[in-house]
From TrEMBL, chain A:
Name recorded for this polypeptide: Branched-chain amino acid ABC transporter ATP-binding protein
Keywords linked to the UniProt accession: Amino-acid transport, ATP-binding, Nucleotide-binding, Transport
Residues covered by the ABC transporter domain: 11-242
Entry keyword annotation includes Transcription: no
CDD domains: ABC_TM1139_LivF_branched
InterPro entries (alphabetical): AAA+_ATPase, ABC_transporter-like_ATP-bd, ABC_transporter-like_CS, BCAA_Transport_ATP-bd_LivF, P-loop_NTPase
UniProtKB/TrEMBL annotation, chain B:
GO cellular component terms attached to this protein's record: plasma membrane
Membrane-topology descriptor: Multi-pass membrane protein
Name of the protein: Branched-chain amino acid ABC transporter permease
Family: Belongs to the binding-protein-dependent transport system permease family. LivHM subfamily.
Coiled coil, from the record: none
Residue stretches spanning the membrane: 6-29, 41-60, 66-88, 100-121, 141-163, 192-217, 229-254, 266-284
């Protein structure tokens, strides 16, 4: 944490406002993620966690404030955001259902500069997620829930981005599979990846995240270390239902 | 009897090949953009007239005529994108499908009338034709039919390789399957839409040359293949390319058999009967998914 604080910010959000049609979901969120940091945003369902990540990656238009990657202001266009190194692993995986696992991974490397780099990233992903190598020729729609989640993370890693945005990786999975998915995320964090993860259950990231922000009704209401939040029963009860 | 059967098969496969070419262009645009391009017929006609002009008026070789039809078709697709589609995409996405259909009806009518004003309404003979036939024992296979089948097979292989093996093709398929996810991977979907319309226009162009080589050039040339291509798209399931090819061949063979058995006037109604049956019992098409992702 101390060493991370000295590093330059990779992602910076300054008072961002966004939403859908007439509905304002995010109401002036500011946060910073530094190189190598693991930052988590927790909050109840429907309070803007996924919208936060979608706004960063450009899927939801920004209405106010600004978002920067390595000091460069984002245009709000998703493909240009990806070019600047934002790798978004969305909720529900959003795999290309009719493509094989390998083709999904190759789509992750769509912006890779050359074939050698694609092969390097593919080897890295297969080493971290060996099951994807076994399933490489299998069509994505036939994967199990856990395999789909792993394929989504693998595709995000294939992007070789500066920061990985991960949206509720535990959603809809059995407890054993959730442990496996978080085991992979822990390895990525140990390897120095910069991660911004949103999650409903703070206990999942208690031992992983460097910092945690509590989101309620589109605004950050508390920030600190995960262990500090877990010790604050009144906060857990008020915002996360205990 | 063998002679008759072979004649029906040759006619059916030739029509099927032409329908497949028209259907794939239409289906490609629908599958990746959720856009029913009603100007596809006019783009097909345009290709036929471009080849005619290049070969007859300019006196250039037939191969240049083909290339001209492909290039002008692709250019027409690009113009359609920049003039219409790009602007409609900026509006409310929920109205895109209806708006683009109406807009392309207008473009199609305008293009057909521009061709009518330029070339007149008299039918013209497309110089891309080969006389004679290949004989194998009792079988007679006209060279013209074989040329059409060969050209269509080559085009299908090219399209299949382009979609399956290239980075551009992967981006097109990814955009068709999940537009948002494709954007997250760095795909500029507007560029993909441009590429799809150009590819579809090129296919329409070459299809126009082939269709007119079997009949004659006239301003409404593309209407019949477009109507049948639409039927085949619906039977296959809109946006399903391999299904579109299979449906085109199957329905063309059915049409040929019905025309032989019941008379030429029953060919088209037999296709309509099939499409009505499919819409009743399998509304998403024979090869279609229950849900098709649109804009």
């Amino acid at each position: 944490m101390t060493s991370a604080a000295a590093k330059p910010p990779v992602l910076q959000l300054d008072a961002i406002v966004s939403g859908y049609d007439g509905l304002e979901v995010l109401k002036g969120i500011s946060l910073t993620v530094r190189a190598g940091e693991f930052v988590t945003v927790v909050g109840p369902n429907g309070h803007g966690k996924s919208t936060l990540l979608k706004t960063i990656s450009g899927l939801v238009p920004l209405r106010g404030g600004q978002i920067s990657i390595d000091g460069q202001r984002l245009s709000g266009k998703p493909h240009e955001t990806a070019m600047l190194g934002v790798a978004h692993v969305p909720q529900g995986d959003m795999l290309f259902a009719q493509m094989s696992v390998l083709e999904n991974l190759l789509m992750g490397a769509y912006l890779a500069p050359d074939k050698a780099e694609i092969k390097r990233r593919l080897d890295e992903v297969y080493t971290l997620l060996p099951k994807l190598a076994d399933r490489r020729d299998q069509v994505a729609s036939s994967l199990s829930g856990g395999e789909r989640r792993m394929a989504g993370i693998g595709r995000g890693l294939m992007m070789g981005g500066r920061i990985l945005l991960i949206d509720e990786p535990s959603l809809g999975l059995a407890p054993l599979i959730i442990d496996q998915v978080y085991g992979v995320i822990a390895e990525l964090s140990k390897a120095g990846r910069t991660i911004l993860l949103v999650e409903e259950n703070p206990a999942r990231v208690e031992d992983l995240a460097d910092r945690l922000h509590l989101l309620d009704d589109g605004a950050i209401v508390w920030s600190g270390k995960p262990a500090e939040l877990m010790a604050r029963d009144e906060l857990l009860a008020t915002y996360l239902g205990g | 009897m063998t002679d008759v059967l072979m004649a029906i098969l040759v006619a059916g496969f030739t029509s099927g090949a032409l329908y497949a070419l028209a259907t794939v262009g239409l289906s490609l645009v629908w599958g990746s953009m959720g856009m029913l391009n009603m100007a596809h017929a006019a783009m097909l006609t345009l290709g036929g007239y471009v080849a005619f002009t290049v070969i007859t008026s300019l006196g250039l070789p037939i191969a240049i005529g083909f290339a001209g039809a492909i290039l002008v078709g692709a250019a027409a697709g690009a113009i359609l994108y920049f003039a219409i589609v790009r602007n409609l995409l900026k509006n409310d996405k929920s109205t895109f499908e209806a708006n683009v259909m109406i807009a392309t009806v207008g473009i199609g009518i305008a293009l057909e009338n521009a061709i009518l004003l330029t070339y007149g309404g008299q039918p013209l003979k497309q110089p891309v034709s080969i006389t004679g036939a290949f004989r194998l024992g009792p079988l007679t296979l006209p060279w013209q039919n074989l040329l059409i089948i060969a050209v269509v097979v080559v085009m299908m292989v090219v399209v299949s390789l382009a979609l399956g093996r290239t980075r551009m093709g992967r981006a097109i398929r990814a955009t068709a399957q999940n537009r948002d996810a494709a954007q997250l991977m760095g795909v500029a979907v507007n560029r993909v839409y441009l590429q799809v319309l150009m590819l579809s226009g090129a296919l329409a162009g070459i299809c126009g040359v082939m269709v007119s080589s079997m009949t004659q050039l006239s301003p409404p040339l593309g209407n019949d293949p477009m109507l049948k291509a639409f039927i085949m798209c619906v039977v296959a399931g809109l946006g399903n390319l391999p299904g579109a090819v299979a449906a085109a061949l199957g329905l063309a063979l059915l049409e040929s058999f019905v025309q032989y058995a019941l008379g030429a006037r029953w060919g088209f109604p037999s296709l309509l009967f099939v499409v009505i049956a499919v819409l009743i019992w399998r509304p998403s098409g024979l090869f279609g998914r229950a849900e098709i992702r649109r804009m």
